[in-house]
Amino acid sequence: MRWTFLAGPAVCLVLSLPCPVRAQPSEAEPAPARTTVVRGRTPPPPESPERRDPTGAITVIDARERAGEARDTAELLVGSVGLAVQDSGGYGQSKSLVVRGASSNGVLVFLDGIPLNGAGGLSDLSLIPAALVERFEVLRGGAGARYGSGGLGGAINIITRAPGPNLRTSGEVTYGSWNTALGHVAATGPMLGGQALLLVHAGRSDGDFAYDVDELPAVDGNPQVSERRARNNAQGGGALLRYRRRLVGGSRLDALAELSLENRAIPGTVQNPQSTGDQELGRLALGLRWSGVLDGLGQGSARGFFRRDGLEVTGHIPGAGGAQRHSVGGVELEGRRPLGEYQALTVTVATSGETVTQEEGAQASSWWRASVMAMDEVRLFGGTLDVVPSMRLERVGPYWLLSPKLGASVELGRGFGLRANAGQSHRAPSFLELYIRQGTLLPNPGLKPERALYADAAVTWRSGPEDSEEAAPRWGLTLGGFAALYENLIAYELYPPLMARPYNFDTARVWGLELEGEARPFSWLLASTGYTYLRTENRYGDPRFFGKDLPYRPRHKWVGRVRAGPDWLNARAEVLYQSAQLINRTGSLDLPSRTLVSAGASSTFLHGPDLTLSVELKNLLDVRTFDFTGFPLPGRAVYVTLAVALEPGASPSSSSTREPHDSPASPVP
């Protein structure tokens, strides 16, 4: 594997440790244990998602509550309402998200605020191992005003594990079906006057499961033939380094460095399977952030980030295009100043540069982007009603983008509340769509940005302590609706004789409902549910497509989950139902509905050190599902996980299998 494109930044990383990401309020502030963010009178921490978007449809998913479940990042997210995962295989194979009907390249994904969307506008969740994740902050709905170009359907910030003040070491190893093996080791504690965390991870899987297929489906009574999924193998590894330090005057410095390398087979499609070919992928991400209080001016922060991605296809795949490198780096300044007791103004100024190079034909292109965002928070009627207008003016390469938003929330008493949002978001065409030729895919430098007009509203109810991790009962329910109009959507069209070129021609309407519920009646019992109804309609004038559902957008999705028991022995069960979805615009082909049942159990049978044994059974009913290329997805699988954690000096009764955690944080553009 050739990873020389990482050599220069890696040397700089070694010479400048501790290297960089973002700040949190204080070490004593707990992360939210609830999953749905519900507004209240208690002021949220400065870096919480509800502070960055006070009226947004936000869900916080605590990955620490899924310990021992042998889930990847996409599986941890799929239970959230409004989201659908596009999965192309088992461990290490590409996984992306559709949020509220927006394409995967219309969803922004961040790693501790560092943007992860690649040169094609997509972000591959399979490259973020679950071992790194502490929680997810999911914003559904247009995110252009707060997070910039690309946020047509929403934004997701993946918060990594945080360093802790006490020396603590931990490790975990998982082994299961299809020779799948995953593991990581981590250490955290005081260092250089602050706190540091180092985590190293690795994994592999053959992915060669068996399945039955009917080779002549048009013939009644035709026997099924046993096949084995080939070219579904992957292996990879990486490391995470985080450092934070309290500075003189109470300000904070946070740093992050993350490295990821992966190699995975290319299966092709069912109609054109590949017998050779692999993808080599790599990422180096660096971030540094200062935050604190500026005398007489309010709260402020300054941050910088850098990310370099590498993609190389081996095995002489036709039209592969050679090695590709994508680099992006930038800085952001943000300030928040109270304007009296019931008003606050937030202003953000950001600039970044982006470049992509492709070995074949020495193709290269670069541009810069700059933006200014202002958000005014006004609390009326003694703080009962919040009105939050915001606007971002952005220059992305040759495009000027304006993304306004108006949000409002009101407290109705007895735990009830209302929130609503309306606005506009954009996605500028990607480098690949504009400038880079890839095999038979031609670029089109005349593309226009995609646009989304959106609105949503919801009623919320919450009972129990708002900001507590204690055992007190907590209940929550959110019911809302949303609608969006997507214009100038970019799609590829045949360009004779054998080429295809992207054009602006698609328009689509999307509307639906979202229901979230959570119950914690006892300290040892957690139940949650989520339902999404998504209706999409293609408005392109061609009668073959007009009025049809958009491909890969299931109309219904329901998830129910229960976890019960103390640390020494607990059990869990999850049911995921997803309705059928189209795989082409004419509606002539579809993927059938699926009901996936999973179950598991964990036991922390020893303390000091903590030893936890977990068993996970996925797809208990062995339901056969398929990806968007027609290949089958994994069936029934079993995984066993052993985790160990040691904190010298801690008493067995106070020892916990949970890693230290951050206070809430959120993405930056």
TrEMBL record:
Q: Which residues form the TonB-dependent receptor plug domain?
A: 52-155
The signal peptide annotation in the UniProt record is 1-23
- Composition bias of kind Low complexity appears in 31-41
Q: Does the keyword Iron apply?
A: no
Q: Where do the TonB-dependent receptor-like beta-barrel domain residues begin and end?
A: 340-620
Determine the domain of life of the protein's source. Answer: Bacteria
> What does UniProt give as GO cellular component?
cell outer membrane
Question: Tell me, which GO biological process terms does this entry list?
Answer: siderophore transmembrane transport
Q: Which Pfam families did the record assign?
A: Plug (PF07715), TonB_dep_Rec_b-barrel (PF00593)
User: What keywords is this UniProt entry annotated with?
Assistant: Cell outer membrane, Membrane, Receptor, Signal, TonB box, Transmembrane, Transmembrane beta strand, Transport
Q: Where does it live in the cell?
A: Cell outer membrane
Q: Topology in the membrane? A: Multi-pass membrane protein
Stretches for region Disordered: 23-54, 649-669
Q: Under the GO molecular function aspect, what terms does this record hold? A: siderophore uptake transmembrane transporter activity
Primary location: membrane
InterPro entries to which the protein is assigned, alphabetical: Beta-barrel_TonB (IPR000531), Beta-barrel_TonB_sf (IPR036942), Plug_dom (IPR012910), Plug_dom_sf (IPR037066), TonB-dep_rcpt-like (IPR039426)
Question: Member of which family?
Answer: Belongs to the TonB-dependent receptor family.
Protein name (Swiss-Prot/TrEMBL): TonB-dependent receptor
Q: Which organism was this protein described from?
A: Myxococcus xanthus (strain DK1622)
What lineage, starting at the top, does this entry show? Bacteria, Pseudomonadati, Myxococcota, Myxococcia, Myxococcales
